[in-house]
Amino acid sequence: MSKKKILLVDYNTKSLESLTELFQNHNIEIVTARDGVTAFEKFKSENPDLVILEPMLPRLHGFDLTQKINKESKGKVPVIIVTGVYKGHQYRTEATRNFGAVGYFEKPFDKNKLVDAVMKYVQDEGDVEDDIAELPDLPGADTVIQGLAQRLKKKPPDKKE
Questions:
Q1: Which of 43, 87, 128, 152 is at 20 to 30 A from 28, Cα to Cα?
Q2: Which structural domains are found in the chain, ordered by start?
Q3: What distances in angstroms separate CA 85 from CA 32, 108, 121, one per listed residue?
């Protein structure tokens, strides 16, 4: 997989550090910001592939930041909310339906689920093709179709009563 870039945004330094550590072994470049205005500036200058943010941010609220990123990128850069403040389905619904977030995790969150969600969004089609190329040799589509056609020829037709 080609190196991807994630923008991490949180007012809490320890949260930024733990999120950074979470992705250090995944060939991902990390850019961080501690407030919404700086985060949006870095979003525009760094062109990240994905943004993870805490909505409770100084200078520009995270839900507003999510909406701005969604608008600026025309929905092409996914935003995942990771929050210790806004808990409950009403916030999840608001963030995903109205502001354009693609994921919503409440702290404490399952680290594996967050990593899986992030990897799902940063892996592009070329990466999938690379992953498939690494699989052991499998029969091609033509071989499979020919095999099915031969089986159908050998199978007696269903009897209708």
A1: 87
A2: 4-133 (3.40.50.2300)
A3: 19, 11, 24
